[in-house]
């Protein structure tokens, strides 16, 4: 997350929330000597292992699943690059993770998806770089069955005459 700032002129400055917290740790932990701050993020296993077909109350099942996620096992640790090895080792051990498979050292912000909310115009410019959405062509048989296009035949009559091959997603029927 970030915070908008800046005075006048229409310019904006953003500060990641982890940097804001790090700069005020002495106030949060009064009397303690702060040696450093290294943000990290842990991810829990969010896999649903319930069977909706066997459930009598789906809402209650989902509420229970959300409550149980607090106790789900950890599957990933992301830590800011440059964090002391002993700190990373301690977190890895306490979270019961595999140091080579589950620990990621991140050079930038831990959650880059937060940046999308800052600049909607960046999203618009990214859309300009994408291929245009594909518009499927209409199957010929549909045109023959559409009264708006002069067709008088029903779709069922057209199918009775012959099979109609429709190639999805290229043709719309």
TrEMBL record:
Keywords: Coiled coil
Keyword Cytoplasm listed: no
Pfam families documented for this protein: PP_kinase (PF02503)
Protein name: Polyphosphate kinase middle domain-containing protein
GO-annotated molecular function: polyphosphate kinase activity
GO cellular component assignments: polyphosphate kinase complex
Superkingdom field: Eukaryota
PANTHER family given in the database record: POLYPHOSPHATE KINASE
Residue ranges constituting the Polyphosphate kinase middle domain according to the UniProt record: 9-116
Biological process, per Gene Ontology: polyphosphate biosynthetic process
Entry coiled-coil feature ranges: 41-68
InterPro entries: PP_kinase, PP_kinase_middle, PP_kinase_middle_dom_sf
Family matches, as SUPFAM superfamilies: PHP14-like (SSF143724)
């Amino acid at each position: 997350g970030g915070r908008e700032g800046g005075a006048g002129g229409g310019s904006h400055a953003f500060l990641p929330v982890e940097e804001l917290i790090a700069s005020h740790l002495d106030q949060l932990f009064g009397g303690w000597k702060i040696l450093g701050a290294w943000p990290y993020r842990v991810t829990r296993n969010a896999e649903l292992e319930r069977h909706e077909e066997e459930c009598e109350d789906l809402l209650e099942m989902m509420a229970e699943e959300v409550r149980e996620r607090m106790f789900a096992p950890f599957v990933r640790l992301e830590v800011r690059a440059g964090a002391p090895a002993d700190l990373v080792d301690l977190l890895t051990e306490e979270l019961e993770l595999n140091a080579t498979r589950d620990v990621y050292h991140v050079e930038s912000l831990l959650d880059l998806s937060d940046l999308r909310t800052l600049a909607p115009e960046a999203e618009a410019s990214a859309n300009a770089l994408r291929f245009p959405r594909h518009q499927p062509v209409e199957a010929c048989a549909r045109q023959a069955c559409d009264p708006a296009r002069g067709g008088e035949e029903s779709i069922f009559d057209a199918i009775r005459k012959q099979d109609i091959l429709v190639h999805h997603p290229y043709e719309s029927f």
